[in-house]
Amino acid sequence: MLVGRECPVATSTKTMLPSLAPDLQGHTVLLNHRTQSATAIDGWRSAIFGIPFLAAGSFMGVTALLHGSRTGRDMPVWAIEIFAGMFFFGGLFFFAHGIHGAIRKATYRREAAQSPSEPWLYDFHWRREGVAFSAFDDMLERLLAAMVWTTFLLPFAWVGINVHGAWPFLLAVIIFGLAGLIFWFRWAQMLLDLLRYGNSFLTYESLPYALGGTLRARLRSPHHVSLIDELSLTLRCVQEKYVTSGTGSNRSTQVVCYELYKDSTVCDRNRLAGLAGNDIPIEFRLPADEPATNLAATPPIYWEIEAKGKARGVDYEAVFLVPVYKVS
Predict the structure, then answer these.
(1) Residues 175 and 186 sit within 8 Å (Cβ to Cβ)
(2) How far does Cα 101 stand from its chain's mean position?
(3) Class of the domain covering 2-32+200-325
(4) 3-state class of 204 per DSSP?
(5) Strand, helix or coil at 281?
């Protein structure tokens, strides 16, 4: 059985932007970490924020359809429709996200009043058998992000090519297009990960896991596990925060993940070869003095197990939420 050893939280030695600096307690930032918060605004504020974008996108789209020949004298209708779609679907996202968040909050408060000592029953839709990590969904999300980024640049490219003196637009498209290759590269990595290892599943041995107790779980061996040279398993407590940086018109707010606690263990190639086709047992001792899971909060606090496998060609990666709560 793989047993983790408690590791102190180390502060990063890298130079970071002020918004990505450790918090006041010295907890380090998890760069490029998957977030549970879809955006840094939620509830009715998100819904209201999305309405002007919905209206603007609808107006632009309808105008381009009804008066296409006149509207598109300086820009083709397809380019206007792309802008309209960006506004409309962006606004729709914020509106739907806000309404969903408001309903979830109301449901949480109602169920919390009924079972205040058992938050795991209503904090998140936990499955008693365990949790899946869908490499397919991960890959699809990255593909959509890459496609949206590329599509957004197309109207600016048209302006840069066809409008006299608009070469700065073309230059900007080239620069941002090269930056966008990161999306496509990451998508290719995720696709290869999916094709080689498939989806993953972590089986819980209990629900919930109690702070101060022991977390035992079993990781279903990924496909071609024998190709992995080293598998690292990390138990982590993560707190998300909405961090605002800049001043005036340059102010921006982003979701930042802070690592409150970390424990890890490593499984070498020989151990993995013996487990091919079987579940990989995992065991961690949980601290008693760290926060409990609160996924219904905005922003949330949660516990996760991250599995990373080093291999020739394509590495393995999966992340699983685990239900860690205070149990009386």
Answers:
(1) no
(2) 17
(3) mainly beta
(4) strand
(5) strand
Q: Render 48-99 in DSSP notation, one character per residue.
A: HHHHHHHHHHHHHHHHHHHTHHHHTSSS-HHHHHHHHHHHHHHHHHHHHHHH
What is the pLDDT averaged over residues 289-310? Answer: 93
d(CA 140, CA 194): 11
Residues 71/77, Cβ–Cβ less than 8 Å? yes
Q: What does DSSP say about strands 316-322 and 200-204: parallel, antiparallel, or unpaired?
A: unpaired
105 vs 126: CA distance, rounded Å: 17
**Phi-psi domain of 324 (left: phi exceeds 0; alpha: psi -120 through 50; beta: other):** beta
Smallest CA-to-CA distance from 103 within 300, 254, 296 is with 296
Half-sphere exposure of 160 (CA within 13 A, CB side): 14
Matching residue, tokens 């992340």: 319
Helix axes 43-66, 77-114, angle to 10 degrees: 160
Give me the percent of the chain exceeding a pLDDT of 70. Answer: 90
The pair phi, psi for residue 92, each rounded to 5°, is -65, -40
Structure tokens at 326: 């205070």
Return d(Cα 213, Cα 59) in angstroms, integer.
57
In sequence order, what are the residues at sequence separation of 6 or more whose Cβ sits closer than 8 angstroms to the Cβ of residue 242? 37, 40, 41, 253, 254, 255, 256, 299
| Distance of alpha carbon 65 from alpha carbon 87, whole angstroms | 16
91 with 56: CB under 8 angstroms?
yes
Would you call 24 exposed, middle or buried from its count of C-beta atoms within 10 A (0-12, 13-18, 19+)? exposed
- Give tens-digit pLDDT for 235-294: 999 999 998 887 777 788 889 999 999 999 998 887 777 766 678 899 999 999 999 999
Position 290 scores a pLDDT of 93
Distance CA 231, CA 217 (A): 16
Residue with tokens 């009924």: 114
Q: Where are the domains of the chain?
A: 2-32+200-325, 40-114, 135-198
